[in-house]
Amino acid sequence: MESSQSSSSRNESQKQTLSGEQERLIDAWWRAANYLSVGQIYLLDNPLLQEALRSEHVKPRLLGHWGTTPGLNFIYVHLNRIIKAHDLNMLFIAGPGHGAPGVIANTWLEGTYSEIYPEVSQDKEGLRRLFRQFSFPRGIPSHASPDTPGSIHEGGELGYSLAHAYGAAFDNPNLIVTCVVGDGEAETGPLATSWHGNKFLNPKTDGAVLPILHLNGFKIANPTVLARISANELASLLRGYGHHPIFVEGEDPRDMHQKMATALDNAIAEIHSIQKLSRDGGSNERPSWPMIVLRSPKGWTGPKIVDGHKSEGSWRSHQVPFSDMSRPEHLRILEEWMRSYRPSELFDVSGCLKAEIAALAPAGDRRMSANPHANGGALMRPLRLPEFSIYAVAVPEPGKVIAEATQVMGTFLRDVMRENERTRNFRVFGPDETASNRLQAIFQATDRTWNAAMTSEDDHLSPNGRVMEILSEHACQGWLEGYLLTGRHGLFSCYEAFIHIVDSMFNQHAKWLKTSREVPWRRPIASLNYLLTSHVWRQDHNGFSHQDPGFVDHVANKKADIVRIYFPPDANTLLCVTDHCLRSWDRINVIVAGKQPAPQWLDMNAAIQHCNQGSGIWAWASTDRGRDPDVIMACAGDVPTLETLAAVDLLRRHIPDLSIRVVNVVDLMTLVPKAQHSHGLTDEDFDALFSTDKPVIFAYHGYPSLIHRLVYKRRNHENMHVHGFMEEGSTTTPFDMVVRNRLDRFHLAADVIDRVPKLGDRVAYAKLAMNNKLSEHKRYIALHGIDMPEVRDWRWPPASQKHG
Amino acid sequence: MESSQSSSSRNESQKQTLSGEQERLIDAWWRAANYLSVGQIYLLDNPLLQEALRSEHVKPRLLGHWGTTPGLNFIYVHLNRIIKAHDLNMLFIAGPGHGAPGVIANTWLEGTYSEIYPEVSQDKEGLRRLFRQFSFPRGIPSHASPDTPGSIHEGGELGYSLAHAYGAAFDNPNLIVTCVVGDGEAETGPLATSWHGNKFLNPKTDGAVLPILHLNGFKIANPTVLARISANELASLLRGYGHHPIFVEGEDPRDMHQKMATALDNAIAEIHSIQKLSRDGGSNERPSWPMIVLRSPKGWTGPKIVDGHKSEGSWRSHQVPFSDMSRPEHLRILEEWMRSYRPSELFDVSGCLKAEIAALAPAGDRRMSANPHANGGALMRPLRLPEFSIYAVAVPEPGKVIAEATQVMGTFLRDVMRENERTRNFRVFGPDETASNRLQAIFQATDRTWNAAMTSEDDHLSPNGRVMEILSEHACQGWLEGYLLTGRHGLFSCYEAFIHIVDSMFNQHAKWLKTSREVPWRRPIASLNYLLTSHVWRQDHNGFSHQDPGFVDHVANKKADIVRIYFPPDANTLLCVTDHCLRSWDRINVIVAGKQPAPQWLDMNAAIQHCNQGSGIWAWASTDRGRDPDVIMACAGDVPTLETLAAVDLLRRHIPDLSIRVVNVVDLMTLVPKAQHSHGLTDEDFDALFSTDKPVIFAYHGYPSLIHRLVYKRRNHENMHVHGFMEEGSTTTPFDMVVRNRLDRFHLAADVIDRVPKLGDRVAYAKLAMNNKLSEHKRYIALHGIDMPEVRDWRWPPASQKHG
């Protein structure tokens, strides 16, 4: 348990990077950080061990993770040395987020913690509070979280640290993002592909990422894969990922201090040399970036043996190495362990860190715990947005003009890209689908980011590109999160079905945002914006495996003030919604919109008004002329809107005197009661749209249950009959997809007919007509493989309107 | 477009692996497969080009993927040669699932397709149907799917091919699973970590996986990362993954045939040598398994130039290289392209494949399209299951005994492991959490699978282990799917929050199961069983980032006949549910159960009866004595059940004459109407439990909206008041977690008091008591950091019951 005494294996003749005095002080900081870490995990009181340790000084429930912590502390103090030596601007990302006791200890030693939380002062009482609050009810979590100064990375689910690091480094040429990757986390898929981030990093205009792979050898109960493959295999793997690995391996602290200092000197020198070469115009080749592999014992400096079992260097030190303080033996081990750090050499009697040690910390914003990039909202500048209405599709009357909504959105995004080219704070992310999603106008303004080899046939690739495409939704999401959390803006476009790949990352980000709002010093960051397209109704190539509209259900489970869901029915509403989302902050906005040619309904003025309301009556499509309608036909989503209007057309022709009100919903959250969501309609406004007693045939883009769930508290909810995706998918025609799920015009019209009793004897005839049409459709596609012209070429307004 | 004529670069003096005749026939098969692939993408009729091609012979909508297909066809024919040469038992997994035209073409050439689908016969009419059905409405999808013979891998979302391959190889010592990994797919996280599967493969008792990384260079619109890093980096990466890469690179067909044949000879020789060494007891070292890197042009043998742009060897050939058949130039290119394969040399005039070419196919089950492992249900043997009741916790009366439910389940699983040790068809999967989830009894019967380096401190690691632990939920899920799809059994235990990581994989498997049911020749496979534990209510270490009960919401969106969701409230019900799930087939079962010490409610007889009903009245906990109750207190989940009973206790003491009925729900699907789910209660049975008019205070484990959604059509749904997770999480005590989400006994009791008007003037007093208790709780945990003894040590039955 001695942390810096044994150095038998040390070669004294070797030239040392650190002077004896430097080494002594660095070791002292490390001991201080380790001491504070153990204190946080174990102690309620007696923080300086000024009395003999008694069981009442120990927390009644011991919760925390020691195993990874001393390694993080070791890295942290060495980074501080190199920051000071080169006046570096460095951000720290701790992949092993459960090492929070270490991260927090260092922020306290640097003074940042007490500056932000004055009650956790730099004295004995502050220490007591620091220890007590950790993993304590109504205290702070046992992993890095939004209330940890200097952190942009929640220590929750593992796998995203390195993607966050790249996201933070993009467009921050003077920043070095040091990212500690735990060897447990390294086994996850998202982390395993994140190493390729270096093919998307421009040494000229982006910052550097310095990965430190921390091999402490064990997960909860297992060894880790990367710690148990041969040294050759590991080096080969990391070189294959495009890195130059520098190994720091051992356990003797003095020896390790020297090795780590040398390694960091070399790594920083390589980074500077790469950047200089590239920025002086010397090379366009992708460099081999340095990285460090730190192999150190799990629970390093912790008790060697507990209860007869090996603890340091074993999976047994993953969490709390021992508990049950009713056993005097345990109390003794704890006290010896903590005293092995020699606290009286580190803190004065009042609990203040000794000046010579405190002097190791960088000054002001150079402290990693105070790096402004970790509070990105404080750096964020609003985007310069062109006036979106100039991209409007001219819609002289509803339904006559055909346009591709996302293509129009692309022209707006192109100019957003141009307007913010100088500040370099906007990027678009997607898994190789930007053009497939018809946003190709963006490529008039910028390229796809690419820093690997290129050929003459490549399309819009460049190291300077601002469109980030890799076939990994995880990487796209992780990069975007890192980019946003450091104060920039972005949009993620994705096939609707496959956005489920990042369900869990969405969760973590939503939780980060919710918690951040309760942390007063965190400034709001730009919203995370999703465009979900190539959606369930138009997967003509791809079939059932590409058909899932359930991401919005997942989103709707999160806190109402964090999430927004939009279904713009055409191009102009999509423009309006996009502009709104790009201006918002601290939210997750989901926009679902199609990319296929489709009728346009609203001119720009009408679109703005409709989007501002969030949902509203489309009088031009209704036949109720302001009277009480017989039925309300509601719709949300582009395809359901089209089918609803086609159904209105059918009904108009078959039952001319039926009074129909059409309601379109753009902002799904308007359906939720006002008390639960700020976008929710008041009950009066809701009833004015949906009535209190009329049947509502609601054509919805996704799973019907979401609508039922949102309107559950509304007066007329018993009368809501929702058509949506019934999990009936296949490779088929667009119209056949809606037929299979009973979302098509014929099924909608038939449902209306069923629900309006006063229709009397015309019911039978009209229903028969609908059924005939459905049979005709089936025969037609079986024969021709395409939709019958009647549905494919259908246009609003119906002829009958003229004299309707 | 010539496929086998140019061979300028060929070194004739070099020793050739293939004789000239072999090469000629292999090339002929390849041309036939390519011809059939193009035919499927393009043609409606004129399948043998016996007339000049006219536009009416071409499909009106062209949907499919050409780019990857010729490479797959090339691989397939070469695999056939090596299968025949060594009588190999080989399963084929096509990661690039959109290469289905190729996969299907080969299954037709092998005869399997026509055996299974006689209408798609091996003649001209069969060819016409083969072409027409592809990506045609009511035909077959454009990617490999359950109706593709020989396939266990849906060509939908990318990333899971290699994990599926390992899953298939486990415990199949004589099987070689050849897995083509596309260079697009290789960028995904799940695939990037799947390479490490070789650290979990035992050369003695498992089969071999032969990965073929197919570098065709492009995704939809971008180059691929692995195709654009240096040859050195790529080789280094693959060696780092533990493989010996064999490179096959070029585009001249004759040259490539020789190279591929040599590469496969070498790869199979290495596999056999590794297996022999290991099986003869010669080596326990992890071998470096061979793999092949095939670098060939995208859209190989397709048109070189279309509309003035490069097509073969470019991203432009990713899907359909050209369409718009109204342009005569396009029709000409298509005809030339197809004729370049010289169909008249391949098929006789009746459309039958020429005998000398057909003879290349392996016989019977050796055909990859007929490999029995690809129809795993046909091989599946039911598990031998010990009588689960012998593991029962003795529960002489409800609430007195404390046990850890998952620990008890572990003893059952231990013996399931033992009973099936001989047949080696059961494994347990989890991300390093088997012991953390308290299933450690399993380690009495087996170890953790591990084939990397070991040390003396390692806990239950062995190459023979049957517990698969890697810190990748993706790998666990992928392995398990591959294992199930090849006819075996398994269980995946996972922290509840992090199972969202595989939301999207769950989707794909659910869709596979749904579609498989419509494919008559596919036999049912064992169900995919999840145990979700370390659940939202007991994340005492981990806090908000580990708190999410939404996976079941995601599951509930899928087709009712595929999914089951269970909330056993104690150990005996968990045993009963586990036994049921392990006996079921073609389903996805989700079991949510806690691992913490908790009161036991039902003895085994009662547990069996309760689980058989799925939900039922707990008369022993109710105070209504069979009369009409004032209120119904329903619960689903272990923690909600505990809080409900504690609330009953409180109400009993404060309002002794209140008549309460307690209903516990184990099988969530009983709430759904019978018409929608086979487990659903009839309306009569539902009303008998929940009444038609009484208030129901429903304490539910997850998000309340799911309950509302399931009971939406029930008569009494307006009276359901659901308490559940309100997305209020933190690192805190167990009881504080339920308080924050109003799921605790005091909030439940208060809600009952609010809903039962007849209580009159006792309301105020009882409500005050509940509020006082909540305040007391808050003060207590702030001071002590643990829950107050009154809630921590609370036990049923309440004293008042004795004279109640």
Automatic annotation (TrEMBL), chains A, B:
Top class in the EC scheme: lyase
PROSITE patterns according to UniProt: PHOSPHOKETOLASE_1 (PS60002), PHOSPHOKETOLASE_2 (PS60003)
InterPro entries: Phosphoketolase, THDP-binding, Transketo_C/PFOR_II, Xul5P/Fru6P_PKetolase, Xul5P/Fru6P_PKetolase_C, Xul5P/Fru6P_PKetolase_CS, Xul5P/Fru6P_PKetolase_N, Xul5P/Fru6P_PKetolase_ThDP_BS
EC number, as in UniProt: 4.1.2.-
Pfam families: XFP, XFP_C, XFP_N
Keyword terms of this UniProt record: Lyase, Thiamine pyrophosphate
Domain spans labelled Xylulose 5-phosphate/Fructose 6-phosphate phosphoketolase C-terminal: 595-796
Cofactors demanded by this protein: thiamine diphosphate
Domain Xylulose 5-phosphate/Fructose 6-phosphate phosphoketolase N-terminal as annotated: residue spans: 24-378
Sequence similarity: Belongs to the XFP family.
Record's protein name: Probable phosphoketolase
